[in-house]
Specification:
The complex is a heterodimer of chains A (103) and B (164). Chain A is an all-beta fold and 103 residues long. Chain A has strands at 5-12, 15-22, 44-51, 54-61, 70-76, 83-90, 95-101. Chain B has helices spanning 2-41, 47-50, 55-62, and strands at 68-69, 73-76, 80-81, 87-93, 98-105, 112-117, 125-130, 136-144, 147-157. The chains are: A mainly beta (103), B alpha+beta (164).
Chain lengths: 103, 164
């Protein structure tokens, strides 16, 4: 199965800009389906970005984050060709991770 | 005689329907149980903070203190969001020693939308997309040097993102 995570990390000088898109329904628990039944909450809780064994960014997400969430941040110290590990876990215990090369 | 023949398939149908209803009920219970289990499983996720319905309560649950307004926070959000399901929000600050950024949507069912941990070496700038139930104030919280600072902006929503 293709990864649920798309990540692009671009190093420019000292800083690395990271943009990431994750495929996830992010159901809030307030929306009803076509039969009028409430769709139970199903959302990502924690996303971690790791570079050189150090967590450089942590997202703590509630159900108010949009479907297929997008996030952008920058950190110092990344170099072209370095590995950037991204992992997430949701409220049903599902998870995924990927490793991207910094460009 | 004829009636019996008609009755028989009807009866079978009733049994099948009963079975289906039972299965559906079982499925629902299983789903509820699994989500309760997973909430405890997710490391580091401050479940209590995400359950609060006011800014002050969410702040207390997340950081344990109150925030003061600051003009050094740049909260970038649209004046009018056409689609409440996808509202782009960006928070950045020039303050030194930032350790966390949180975003709250005051009129949403749960106030806290997202919180980010910023370790040393990571810039105090984050962009993401949030759902908004209706027109609301959006509050950006920045934790810097052990203190909390906030900036507020009102976003008008024409189509809500939290209801069907």
């Amino acid at each position: 199965m293709a990864s649920t995570i798309r990540v692009r990390a671009i190093a420019s000088g000292d800083t690395t800009q990271v943009q990431s898109l994750i495929n996830h329904p992010m159901d809030s628990g307030f929306v009803k389906d076509s039969k009028g039944q409430i769709i139970p909450p199903h959302h990502i809780e924690v996303v971690e970005f790791e570079h050189a064994g150090k967590v450089v960014f942590t997202c703590l997400w509630g159900p108010a984050v949009s479907k297929d969430p997008y996030v952008k941040f920058s950190f110092k110290g990344g170099k072209k060709g370095d590995d950037l590990k991204v992992s997430w876990v949701d409220n049903k215990g599902q998870s995924d991770s990927t490793v991207a090369k910094i460009q | 005689m004829k009636n019996e023949f008609i009755d028989a398939p009807d009866h079978t149908r009733r049994i099948i329907l009963k079975g289906a209803a039972g299965l559906a009920a079982f499925g629902f219970t299983a789903a509820t149980l699994s989500s309760a289990y997973a909430a405890a499983d997710a490391k580091a996720w401050p479940e209590n903070a995400f359950k609060q319905k006011s800014e002050a309560d969410a702040l207390k649950a997340l950081y344990g203190k109150a925030a003061e307004a600051s003009d050094k926070i740049n909260l970038d959000a649209p004046e009018i969001a056409e689609n409440g399901a996808v509202v782009p929000i960006a928070v950045a600050t020039t303050m030194p020693g930032v350790t966390g950024i949180a975003i709250m949507v005051l009129e949403n069912p749960f106030t806290l939308a997202a919180a980010y941990k910023i370790p040393e070496g990571t810039e105090a700038s984050v962009a993401c997309r949030l759902k908004m139930a209706k027109t609301s104030k959006v509050v950006a919280i920045v934790e810097a040097g052990g203190k909390l600072y906030s900036a507020t902006k009102e976003v008008k929503v024409t189509v809500g993102g939290c209801g069907g």
